[in-house]
């Protein structure tokens, strides 16, 4: 086998392992596509096409017009919540494109990531989600009994979900069992003390179950134009949400038979005491979610801070100024900006901080109120469910806008010319040659150094090895990277390859 073909297989193997690893751990389609292109472009490959669907990554390379395309297709495994592995794939990508890690070592490292043991054992994962559920109940104004019940219920449904997953039971049934378990615990709390707001237990558990779904990523892909992947993720989210609905409705039948009131209580008013509880709850949500999703220890304080900031903005703005949909959109916008800045500064996946900031914004109470209303007044229940969907779109739109804006600002302050996490973007043509902004067109950081930017928003061309830019007077390099000039009667690269 020729040496260049051997290297081509090696580059594709690395790119495919990284792309599939990111997709399986919840990365958006735009980030998967951009990261794969960073790997291939830093390896010197042009005319590479990347397609990302719900559970597949397709990479194709066309050497020239007369060559046969070299294509690989690989399916992603079941989606997991393991941000330690996501961070590992990001580290491998950054080390490879910066020249710190040779190709063969990067391949071995990427191959080893899925086989590594989880960062935290199952009891610690269960404890993390239990703390998250208890902190959510404090965010909604729970007393001691409800707090203990929400903590217990969140831990039980997490353990049950892990057990069913290891038994290869479809996630739909795990979601249904979790919803029924949450209502069952709330009914028990109502029987012990009818004067407490037992519905907070159900709302907290619903948010614990929904936070791990691909709902935010689905809407994000839809907002940015990646409709194929968005459609698959939305259908997955819909089916798993239907599972929660089935479980909760089953629990409601039990509550009605026992005569227990599990209606939703009013939101917490704004006061110094409630703000103090929001601070404690925000920190607990972030820490609990981080431990439960295997976030590396160095990132835990930051994800807790982002969760606190998001929850505080949403609580104060919705209580004093605007409706909840606008309040959560503003909080999501700030979260998106902070997540990009922290990801670039800490060399960590942006998704880690995005998910931490989303936790206090999930409309769990509206979803539950809608489920209650569907049993009594269909129009009222449907309105609440529609409002929950409206908030979900607002969250995703705010996150996308915040990340897009931060992606424009962060390069001015970046310590390295190589971006750590690609910015999200609309779909782009991957077969055309990219143009580098060089010379007078390039932007400069505060220290005066040149910042090399791509012609698209994804940042894949910033992945090129710095050694390629040492001699910008080398004409053959510039000719290879610059796109062909538009001339009358001459077709572009994309037209020739179509």
UniProtKB/TrEMBL annotation:
The chain crosses the membrane at residues 146-165, 172-192, 198-219, 266-287, 299-318, 324-343, 350-371, 391-410. The keyword Transmembrane helix applies. Its main location: membrane. Keywords: Cell membrane, Membrane, Transmembrane, Transmembrane helix. InterPro entries: ThrE-like_N (IPR010619), ThrE_2 (IPR024528), ThrE_Dicarb/AminoAcid_Exp (IPR050539). Residues 439-460, 478-498 are annotated as: Disordered. It comes from Brachybacterium sacelli. It is a multi-pass membrane protein. Belongs to the ThrE exporter (TC 2.A.79) family. It is found in: Cell membrane. Residues 287-403 form the Threonine/Serine exporter ThrE domain. Pfam families: ThrE (PF06738), ThrE_2 (PF12821). Residues 13-253 form the Threonine/serine exporter-like N-terminal domain. This is Uncharacterized membrane protein YjjP (DUF1212 family). The keyword Nucleotide-binding does not apply.
């Amino acid at each position: 086998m020729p040496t260049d073909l051997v290297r081509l297989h090696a580059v594709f193997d690395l790119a495919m392992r990284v792309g599939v690893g990111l997709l399986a751990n919840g990365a958006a389609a735009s980030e998967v596509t951009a990261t794969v292109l960073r790997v291939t472009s830093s390896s010197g490959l042009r005319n590479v096409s990347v397609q990302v669907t719900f559970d597949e990554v397709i990479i194709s390379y066309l050497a020239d017009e007369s060559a046969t395309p070299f294509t690989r297709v690989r399916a992603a495994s079941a989606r997991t919540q393991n941000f330690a592995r996501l961070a590992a794939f990001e580290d491998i990508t950054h080390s490879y494109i910066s020249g710190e890690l040779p190709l063969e070592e990067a391949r071995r490292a990427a191959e080893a990531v899925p086989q590594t043991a989880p960062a935290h054992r199952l009891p610690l994962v269960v404890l993390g989600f239990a703390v998250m559920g208890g902190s959510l109940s404090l965010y909604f104004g729970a007393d001691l009994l409800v707090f203990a019940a929400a903590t217990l219920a969140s831990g039980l449904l997490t353990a049950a979900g892990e057990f069913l997953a290891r038994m290869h039971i479809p996630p739909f049934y795990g979601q249904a069992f979790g919803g029924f378990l949450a209502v069952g615990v709330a009914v028990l709390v109502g029987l012990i003390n009818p004067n407490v707001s037992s519905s907070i237990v159900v709302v907290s558990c619903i948010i614990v179950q929904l936070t791990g779904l691909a709902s935010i990523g689905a809407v994000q892909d839809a907002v940015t134009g990646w409709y194929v992947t968005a459609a698959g993720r939305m259908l997955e989210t819909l089916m798993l949400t239907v599972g929660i609905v089935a479980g909760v409705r089953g629990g409601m039948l039990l509550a009605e038979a026992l005569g227990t009131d599990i209606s939703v209580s009013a939101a917490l008013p704004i006061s110094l005491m409630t703000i103090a509880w929001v601070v404690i709850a925000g920190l607990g949500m972030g820490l609990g979610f981080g431990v439960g999703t295997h976030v590396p220890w160095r990132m835990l304080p930051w994800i807790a801070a982002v969760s606190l900031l998001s929850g505080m903005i949403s609580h104060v703005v919705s209580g004093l100024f605007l409706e909840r949909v606008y309040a959560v959109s503003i909080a999501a916008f700030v979260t998106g900006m902070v997540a990009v800045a922290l990801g670039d500064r800490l060399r960590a996946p942006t998704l880690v901080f995005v998910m931490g900031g989303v936790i206090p914004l999930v409309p769990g109470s509206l979803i539950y109120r809608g489920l209650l209303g569907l049993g009594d007044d269909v129009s009222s229940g449907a309105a609440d469910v529609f409002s929950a969907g409206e908030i979900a779109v607002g969250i995703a739109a705010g996150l996308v806008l915040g990340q897009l804006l931060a992606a424009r600002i962060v390069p001015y302050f970046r310590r390295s010319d190589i971006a750590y996490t690609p910015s999200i973007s609309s779909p782009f043509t991957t077969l055309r040659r990219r143009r580098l902004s060089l010379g007078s067109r390039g932007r400069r950081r505060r220290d005066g150094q040149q910042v090399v930017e791509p012609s698209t928003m994804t940042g894949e061309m910033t992945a090129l090895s710095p050694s390629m830019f040492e001699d910008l007077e080398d004409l053959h390099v510039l000719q290879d990277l610059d796109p062909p000039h538009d001339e009358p009667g001459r077709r572009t690269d994309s037209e020739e390859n179509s």
